[in-house]
Amino acid sequence: MTATTGAGAAPPARNTPLALARGLLTGGVIGASPTMLVVGAVIESVPLFVTGVALPAIYGLLLFLSGAPGRAREAATAPCTALAVIESRELLGDEAAGDVAVRFVSTVAPDTAPAYRVAFTQPVHPADLPDHRPGGVVVVQYPPDRPWRVRIVKRPTPRWEERAAGAHLDAAPGPVLESEPDETGAVGYVRLLALLLAAAGVVLLFRADLFDEGATAQPPSPTRPSVSSSSSSSTTVVSAASGTVTLGPHQSFLDKAALRRAVASLSTGTDARAALTVVVQDRLLSVVYAPTVSQAPAFDPDSLPYERFPSLVGEAKRSLGVGAPQTWQLTVERLTGSLTVRVGVTGAGGTASLEADGDGTVVRRTPAH
Amino acid sequence: MGLRGYLALWCALFGTVALVGYVRSLAGVTAAQRAVRVPGRIERVREPRHGSSQRDGIPVVVSFQDPSTGEEFTVTNDRDHGERIAVAWTGRDIGVHYPPGRPHAYRFTGDLEAAPRGLGWPNFAVFLIYVGLVVFAAIDRGWPWALVGFGLPWTLSGLWYVPQNARAVRRRIAALTSQPPVPGRVVAVLTDTSTDSEGVTFLSHMPVIAFTTHTGTAVTAYCTEDLPDPAHSHGRDVMIHYDPDDPALFTPDLAAQDRSRLFDLTCGTVALLLGAAATVAGVVLL
């Protein structure tokens, strides 16, 4: 085999925009993925958790695929074999801990190209160290287009073994070709920065859910009669006797599932408590709980037909002739024995009301007059 | 996205992987199918150096011919060239495979006859789909489905494997005892050191024995089992029973073979019974 590339070509620097971009992306994925796992677990968001698992897998796959053409090109070319003389060696590790990394400085003498000096590092089994003494001639291989990536052949073929045994090589003059340098500090710095930014970004993005979760998870108790929490989306106040949820601007309890969610947030971490009255306005939900010793007719606030409430309010606003502008209030109680849902609407045309039973079926209408 | 959504995504993902793999295999374009497979011959065997690494295999020189160019290659082995060669004698046939046009990327294989179809990844994808379905059934329909889903294939594979294994072990012992043993010697003990993540160092020792068969074949082989105190066995004389049809099958301790047969059979039977019990329990609890 022959060397097709002359020695002396310096290995390319790796501080390229591509290396920086890769460092940025790698740092971002390393930072974002575990943060997503933790935040996803804390706020119980399955999609976020799954993204945290899938992101590094997909990124790794993309990295692997992007490197495939280069690896295929490299694998397609047969390596060059040559004799080399070891000028010096330096043990970089502990012999007792298995294969030890050794840094060699050698002169490589290809058959058809000028000899050149090269420094490279290779792991060596401690028992094989006597074969790699300074001054000894060894057989090496390297890719034709990367003469600095030299590797000592552990078991040369008989022909090369004979050549090495009979050869006498002198160290070549000239500078030492370094094997591929490690990545520069800039890439490491960019990666660290991207890691921190990505982790902070994920936390900031989900800060509302994180802080909200932290506050509502604490149950109300006799020693802590009132718990309040607020986030950009809602304010929740819970005490032993009542619970109130006030929505933020641009929201309404007529939004899909908003009521069910708010009631669930009131009862988080507590035993199911019976309610005397539930009052709903556009952005205010108020539940008055029954005292534990009370004989008053109470009901389970979780059992109400919340899905029907928006259509009941809509019907009251539309069909009872109150005109615009309108305000509305929905009240649930069972003072008369059976559960009653009453919707009152006030507009330019006066006040009207609508009554429904525990299933949300309309039983009485009182139009405006 | 609910549980069903995730299951659908899981099945779609691995279904695609499996489908692509099977189509590629049918078309004959998987890497395993495209690889050039040629017989190689061990031309020279050397005793490994005492204390060196076992990961490179027994040092051999192998020759093979590239069928497309007719060129003859003489190569050596180490840890970067396929299966570790653990038993060697001059003249032994050994499989060599490499991507088309790249004889320098040769790999050794002990399996001379096999014509692999490259179905490893597609089959694994199908297994993952099955696991997904069983997990889904266990969550959606009740946990006894997990017992049935995993116990049934476990039992079926046990029913297939245990009798076959018992027959193979019986045949092996019959072959080993078919003729008197020959003298052998531990010519080297290979030592590797590994360190775990907590810095604890482990030493592993592999005795290498050399013996000559009744027909004059000089065999050098790693002795992976049946040799007591392998770390201090260097220079020890042993008696070797071997299979006359394939000297790669040998033992320095026939009694240990009997013991391992009993152990194998017991383990196989217990595993089979566990699988069957899980399946029955699952069916009853459904």
Give a written overview of the molecule.
The complex is a heterodimer of chains A (369) and B (286). Chain A is of the alpha+beta class and 369 residues long. Helix content of chain A is 32%, strand content 27%. Chain A folds into 3 domains: 17-76 and 184-207, no CATH class; 80-178; 220-366, no CATH class. Chain A contains 7 helices and 15 strands. In chain A, the strands form 2 sheets. Chain A has a 9-stranded antiparallel β-sheet with strand order 7-8-9-11-10-12-13-14-15, with helices on one face. In chain A, strands 5-4-1-2-3-6 form a 6-stranded mixed β-sheet. In chain A, helix 1 (17-42) runs antiparallel to helix 2 and helix 1 packs parallel to helix 4 (185-205). Chain B is globular. The mean pLDDT of chain B is 91. In chain B, helix 1 packs antiparallel against helix 3 (120-141) and helix 3 (120-141) runs antiparallel to helix 4 (144-176). Chain B has helices at 3-27, 31-34, 120-141, 144-176, 254-285; strands spanning 36-45, 60-65, 72-76, 87-88, 93-98, 107-109, 182-195, 201-212, 218-222, 237-243, 246-251. Chain B has a domain at 35-109. Chain B is 41% helix and 27% strand. Chain A binds chain B through residues 46-47, 50, 75-76, 78-79, 96-99, 125-128, 154-159, and chain B through 1, 6, 44, 49-53, 56, 59, 61, 74-78, 99, 101-102, 104-105, 191-195, 201.
> Pairing-aware structural class of the strands and helices of chain A?
alpha+beta
Number of domains of chain A: 3
- Overall shape of chain A: it is rod-shaped
Number of E-state strands of chain A: 15
N-to-C SSE string of chain A, H for helix and E for strand: HHEEEEEHEHHEEEHEEHEEEE
Strand/helix succession of chain B: HHEEEEEEHHEEEEEH
Name the chain pair whose interface involves the most residues: A-B, 21 and 27 residues
Widest β-sheet, arrangement of strands of chain A: 7-8-9-11-10-12-13-14-15
Summarize the main sheet of chain A: 9 strands, antiparallel
Mean pLDDT of chain B: 91
- Tally the beta strands of chain B: 11
Radius of gyration of chain B: 24 Å
What is the overall silhouette of chain B? globular
Tally of individual helices of chain A:
7
Arithmetic mean of pLDDT of chain A: 82
The helicity of chain A comes to 25-40%
Strand order of the largest sheet of chain B: 4-9-8-7-10-11
Low-confidence stretches of chain B: none
Largest sheet of chain B: 6 strands, antiparallel
| Head-to-tail CA distance between termini of chain B | 28 Å
Helix content of chain B: 40-55%
